Amino acid sequence: MEAIYxxxxxxxxFGAIAAGLFGKKIGRAGAHWVTILGVAVAFLxxxxxxxxxxxxxxxxxxTVYTWAVIADIRFEIGFMLDNLSxxxxxxxxxxxxxxxxxxxxxxxxDPGYQRFFSYISLFTxxxxxxxxxxxxxxxxxxxxxxxxxxxxxxxxxxxxxxxIYANMKAFLVNRVGDFGFLLGIAAVLLYxxxxxxxxxxxxxxxxxxxxxxxxxxxxxxxxPTVIAILLFIGAMGKSAQVPLHVWLPDSMEGPTPISALxxxxxxxxAGIFMVARMSPIFELSDTALNLILIIGATTAFFMGLIGIVxxxxxxxxxxxxxxxxxxxxxALGASAYSAGVFHLMTHAFFKALLFLAAGSVIIAMHHExxxxxxxxxxxxxxxxxxxxxxxxxxxxxFPGFSGFFSKDLIIEAVHESHLxxxxxxxxxxxxxxxxxxxxxxxxxxxxxxxxxRFDTHGHGHxxxxxxxxxxxxxxxxxxxxxxxxxxxxxxxxxGYLLDPMVVGSFxxxxxxxxxxxxxxxxxxxSWLSAHLAIEHMSAEYHGVMGFILHGLMAPPFWLAMxxxxxxxxxxxxxxxxxRWAYDKxxxxxxxxxxxxxxxxxxxxxxAKGSVSLGNGLWSFGERVxxxxxxxxxxxxxxxxxxxxxRHLQTGYLYHYAFSMVAGILLMLTWFLFF
Amino acid sequence: xLDLPILSxxxxxxxxxxxxxxxxxxxxxxxxxxxxIALLTFVISLxxxxxxxxxxxxxxxxxxxxxxxxxxxxxxxxxxxxxMPLILLNTFITVMVVIAGWEVVTYRISQYMAAxxxxxxxxxxxxxxxxxxxxxxxxxAMLIPLFLIIGxxxxxxxxxxxxxxFLYTFFGSVFLLISLIYLYQLGGSFAVADLxxxxxxxxxxxxxxxxxxxxxxxxxxxxxxxxxxxxAHVEAPTGGSVILAAITLKVGGYAFLRFALPIVPDxxxxxxxxxxxxxxxAVVYIGFVALVQQDMKKLVAYSSIAHMxxxxxxxxxxxxxxxxxxxxxGAMNSAVLAIQGGMVQMVSHGFISGAMFLCIGVxxxxxxxxDINAYGGVANRxxxxxxxYVLFAMANTGxxxxxxxxxxxxxxxxxxxxxxxxxxxxxxxxIVGAAYxxxxxxxxxxxxxxxxxxxxxxxxxxxxxxxxxxxxxxVLLLGLWPQPLTDVMEVSIKNLLSQALQSxxxxxxxxxxx
Lengths: 674, 514
Hints:
Chain A: Pfam families: Proton_antipo_M, Proton_antipo_N. The complex is a heterodimer of chains A (about 675) and B (about 525). With about 675 residues, chain A is mainly alpha-helical. Chain A folds into two domains: about 1-455 and about 475-515 and about 525-575, no CATH class; about 600-674. Chain A contains 27 helices and four strands. Chain A has helices at about 1-20, 25-55, 85-105, 115-130, 135-155, 160-190, 195-205, 225-240, 245-250, 255-265, 270-275, 280, 285-310, 315-335, 335-365, 380-395, 400-415, 420-450, 480-495, 500-505, 530-540, 545-555, 555-575, 575-585, 585-595, 600-645, 655-674, and strands at about 60-70, 75-80, 215, 220. In chain A, a hairpin with a 5-residue loop joins β3 (about 215) and β4 (about 220). The longest helix of chain A has about 50 residues, at about 600-645. Chain B has about 525 residues and is mainly α. Chain B has one domain (about 5-500). Helices cover about 75% and strands about 5% of the residues of chain B. Chain B is built from 23 helices and two strands. In chain B, strands 1-2 form a two-stranded antiparallel ribbon. At the A-B interface, β1, α5, α6, β3 and α26 of A face α7, α13, α15, α18 and α19 of B.
């Protein structure tokens, strides 16, 4: 069995190496075959392992090899396979497989074809190492490795100035998160003496009463709070939470398949996964959970608002991703980890679908991404149209679609939470539902319905010349549409896993919820991964249909319908309302268009500030002080001194004779009298 | 096999071989001869690893010949887990340097090769010397080949750079000599092992420590005595830069472990804050300075200083760790981790900085400029080179899976126990280090082809490719599996720690001071 576990990440790695180092030899078809084969093997084996772990309950925790042993600290590379990690493996390998197939169509004219396949397979390997890890070292390894591949892929078109700016920005902002994450790992090692998950989780409750973290001599903080917040800073970077979200919209400079795979479905959810995995730590700190609620809710609502004013098809979806990541974070803050992870899974399907559909539209539009220049594509691209509709309905949480189950669960969970930040979070996630529906269907209507606003003659990139300019747009080839359909299926039906995954005790061994800390009667709960909200809902849960019926009467549904209707009215019926709002609230539009001025702030304060600081240190500290004053100053002082001393060497015999006589006199005096 | 005087061979073979190269002169075959010597030295150094006994802290492969009996100076050689990896690093890098100069150096080629071979022999001696005077002599002798390398094959301002480099380092070592003579007066022996056991009062300890700090701090180099390094790097030929960064700097770090910590532990414990402050300044301040450099070599030179800051931080943070009484066994673990981290960082920096300078050399050989603004879009013309360059850049930013990660990770983890704020300051390198490195990559590698010169660039030749590929393999291997390195150092480091944390002031000794 260990061999199979090992083969799951290694198969994509093999594909990546083959396509990356020997891309020229194996050619374009060779590259996509070898990588697709690698990922397909990983997917099939993941299914097999998932069956074994989920079905037969054979979870696994073991070491692959020892990285280093320093004194008594063991650093190891190892796997932990339980319901949480195998679910992630299924999601990662399935979406990755779809994206690999899709890439054949999307990138088929790109000169960097083999390189692209190599990167996405390498990404799959890194992501699998991240989710399968059983210790913090490997987690950090995977964490940074996916960041690296993200850097390489955002900057895939390295001639584009915007792309190479975006990839550097992404890496640096992620590094800010990693900075906190690494310190968090250091704190874990300090207090637990190990980096192994199981051992850490066993020791961490003993620290829950300890306010021992010495910040200064007299200031001591609660240890689990410090650890949890430091780790969460890492999650904020990777999962693009405010204020470390700024890299994700810019990451859209990369090719669309990776926007789907990395910047929507998998990598950005690593932070969510990490917090869920670390639930035994987070559960010990209400302070950390409150912080998570605030950050998550802020991201969920305010990033959604920006989505309304975006005109680039990919950026709308990107802001929607930010907003949805906010929802997942909120779930974590409310201790509804299973709901967060559930939304992670459904979101992976429908958001990957939406991105790939956007990519399909972009191909048809000859790489035009402005939704104001589209419209009426429904009749030209039926498969893209219908799958997009499914994705959008899932996104807004239309009853029966996957997003409905997961999002409703989160909203309910926040509603039931007793933390003080829960009220703020509940208001924002509820309003966020309206916003989500509005921007989603604004985009949907602008792209697929209404007048055809695209230019059928003329522009277009030369590398896409043979698509036939002047023709009407047409549906994409099967390598593009098949993944769309394959992703549309779980976008609808993944929600029905609600029954076993959330209501049941699916994550009982992987997720820990500290019911006692949240004021529960321990006697009431029948399984560990219950939290108040979910427990409450399970008690009232009467099957999927009941859940849907309940949803039809709940406020989120009506808010979503209102958003959809508003979008329909404004963008298909009568846009005078939009004009009125635009005139009336121009300041708001500007604020959203400038993304709350956060990019400007970062650019002016952090980027320019660092360069100015560097220049200051360089010109003053290095050149004036150390080199100018001390080093060259010493040289000058020696020069000056020898210049003075030179005057003693006059060369006149009587000077020397005089000093000899004076010296002899002095010495005689000394010896005679002292 | 073990009866061979391996250490002597490692010292004298390259030196005599270097003289041989000089005799061959600039005829054809000089390069091949030099490469043969370098390879042979490397091969001879391998048994040091394979026959090394990692379970003891005793010196191994010991050689002892009385030399100047009047002053009890001996030709005394031996290695432990701390010096052995550095010797291997040296013999390995020397091969790389000989290959790097292969087609590039056309002027006085035999002398160039000879200088590097002699340098290799001397450095092996520095790492193997167990007699303080022998160490000192070789420590100083190291300057001569480097002085010649920069002075003869260097750039336009090479005279300024060599004088600065020479005086700077020489100034530091004078104090070392005085300290060693004082120690000889005190204990009557130059043997390093005797010095380790010699009780010394706190005031002389402090003075000795300060002189060590100056001598070794200049070599490392530590802020604020680092400004010779960027100048020396900028003017040095590629090979010189590689040796300077990969090997010479390590001598400073090694000397801290061999001399400063065990000989004057009380002073080190008292002044650890000073060294930590200097190290953190190196990490943070120098990081920002690196950010604004316009000269590629200067940028990498400053990045070297920042990375060496982790070495000294790891070595001196042990006193703070030992003071944290949260958990005694945990404190020992963290202290070992800190020194291990510093050592791994030294070896890793040898690979990475060597590779970075070789990469700059590859570009310089084609474009004859190191100005970052002259480049842009190199990846369009040199894809293979770009891939390797990005790999080394990522290693420079401490990406997990590369060797650059291992040392920094260990030092940050360990220093968290001394103080979260030390770890905090050190971890800023994650951001600053990534900023200057990736900005360099962006400006040099990415974008459209910037100008006509870039447009004519040719990708790596076979020699250049293998040179960089071997280093890339080393960087990845050490990053993915550092255990073979950490295991051989473990026992020696534990032994060192027991010495470094043991008070040596006279009152602590039964017999008092001699």
